[in-house]
Design brief:
- By secondary structure, the protein is α+β, with helices and mostly antiparallel strands.
- It has 3 domains: 4-78, Arc Repressor Mutant, subunit A (Orthogonal Bundle), CATH 1.10.10; 99-124 and 224-338, 2-Layer Sandwich (Beta-Lactamase), CATH 3.30.450; 129-221, 2-Layer Sandwich (Enolase-like, domain 1), CATH 3.30.390.
- Helices cover 45% and strands 19% of the residues.
- The chain is built from 14 helices and 10 strands.
- The strands form 3 sheets. Strands 7-3-10-9-8 form a 5-stranded antiparallel sheet, sandwiched between helices. A 3-stranded antiparallel sheet has the order 4-5-6.
- Helix 1 crosses helix 3 (39-51), helix 1 (4-20) packs across helix 4 and helix 5 packs antiparallel against helix 14.
Amino acid sequence: MLTPRQELILRKVVEDYLEGGQPVGSKALATAADVEWGPSTIRNELAMLEEHGLLAHPHTSAGRVPTDAGYRYFVDRLLPAPRAGAERPLALSLVRREVDEAMRVTTETLSQVTNLLAIVSAPPIETATIRHVEVLLLQPQVLMVVVITSTGGVTKRMLTFETPIDAGLADWGASYLNEQLVGLGLGARLLHQRLGDPRLGPRERGFLASVAPAFTELTDTADDALYVEGASRLVSSYRFEDHEQLNEVMEMLERRVSLLGVLRSALDQSDVYLRIGSENEAPALRSLSLVAAGYGLPARNLGTVSVIGPLRMDYGRAIASVRAAAIELSRFVENVYEG
């Protein structure tokens, strides 16, 4: 545990380094209005903070810079807590938008507000329910099945038959599918049962078996969608001295599966999930910081809102912005899923 004097000096070092990007020395600290000690006393405290592993001493400068542990101590203990009602909600303008558009708006706004790389993961497709089904006979042997989900998503499936399709059968199929499937989740077992109802005649069962992939294969082939904005901001704001690490970061952004694995860690958190530098398990992120929060329904998080940036980021703004975006998206998806 640090003394109050050490905590004040550590806070000043972190804040000055975040603002200026240069190592902070004892003389500069001694001139601060809220620091009442001389340079020699401050040098001793800086040395103690370095022994605690909270500051580092670059060989080219007499000043100190925060370590990963120093940033962590600052965020956990020294970052001022937001006053009740003081956080401004992000102006996301999500009213009546579809989920896909809401994800894009959130990602773009969050990247602009924080000047960091912003990533939002969409709700898994299996959490959506069927809202409406269209069965369209395009040609005598070509059928299109359109599925509209509760999240506003639209999927189309073209099906080709060996023999001409009876128009009356297609009309029956549209009526049956809307009566039996609307309101069911795309991953629900009941959906499969109703597509194979043994009480139907062989002609109807054969038709439903032909169109079943339009419903049953959606969750098998769909990847969780990721919305990414601000990759150029990350590259320009952080000086990648190690080109191999830059390649790892870019590869992670391209290979969405590994990035999704990182973000899923935030789904079980009740508040903001923060990993600083070496705390990140993914090698590509070990000199960066990740701030994430889950959003979704009261009893279940459906996705994450996150930003990635350099260790020298404005943690207060990043945490507040991610938290606000998650709250706004939660309100939005509650209306969508309950509507």
